[in-house]
C-alpha cells in the first residue's frame, strides 16, 4: 500500500473463520524468504490445523510463490496446492480485501506519518475488518468461478 511518503508490502491470508496476522514484507521477497518468513510460521500451521484435506488455496502466481523451494516445501509439508490461472484478479478475493484495507487506511486522519506508522495502521485495520467481509468473500467463490467460466475468462463484476 502506498502513501505520500513511501509504501508497505504486506502478506495476509484468510479462510472462512480465520485470518492470519498481517505480515510486513520488507525488501525483496524471494522464494526462500517466502518459505521461511511466511509459509513456515503462518500458512502451513494453519493448514495443518485444518487437517489432511486442507488445500493451500490461492496466491498471485508471483515468482516467490511459485519458486521450486516453495513447491518442494509445500509438498514435503503435505500441503495440497490448488492451481489457479495467472492474472486472475476476479478469482482472488484477497484483492477485494486489499481494496477495503486501502479505503480504511486512507480514511484515517491524520494520514500516516511514515512507513512504520502506515504498517501500524494497516495492522489495526486488518484486525478490525468485520468477519462478515471474510465470510462473504469465501462464500462468493462458487459464483466467481461460474462467472469466470461463463465469460470464458473475461471480465466479471468482481
From TrEMBL:
Protein name per UniProt: Tc1-like transposase DDE domain-containing protein
Domain of life: Eukaryota
Tc1-like transposase DDE domain ranges (all copies): 6-108
An annotated Gene Ontology molecular function: nucleic acid binding
A Pfam family this chain is assigned to: DDE_3
Amino acid at each position: 500500500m502506498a502513501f505520500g511518503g513511501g509504501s508497505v508490502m504486506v502478506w495476509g491470508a484468510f479462510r472462512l473463520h480465520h485470518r492470519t496476522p498481517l505480515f510486513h514484507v520488507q525488501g525483496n521477497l524471494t522464494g526462500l524468504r517466502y518459505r521461511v518468513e511466511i509459509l513456515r510460521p503462518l500458512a502451513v500451521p494453519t493448514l495443518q490445523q485444518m487437517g489432511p484435506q486442507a488445500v493451500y488455496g490461492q496466491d498471485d502466481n508471483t515468482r516467490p510463490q511459485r519458486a521450486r523451494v516453495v513447491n518442494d516445501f509445500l509438498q514435503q509439508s503435505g500441503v495440497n496446492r490448488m492451481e489457479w490461472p495467472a492474472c486472475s484478479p476476479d478469482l482472488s478475493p484477497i484483492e477485494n480485501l486489499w481494496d477495503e484495507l486501502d479505503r480504511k487506511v486512507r480514511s484515517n486522519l491524520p494520514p500516516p506519518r511514515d512507513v512504520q506508522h502506515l504498517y501500524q495502521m494497516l495492522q489495526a485495520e486488518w484486525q478490525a475488518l468485520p468477519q462478515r467481509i471474510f465470510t462473504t468473500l469465501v462464500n462468493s467463490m462458487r459464483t466467481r468461478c461460474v462467472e469466470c467460466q461463463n465469460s470464458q475468462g473475461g471480465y466479471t463484476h468482481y
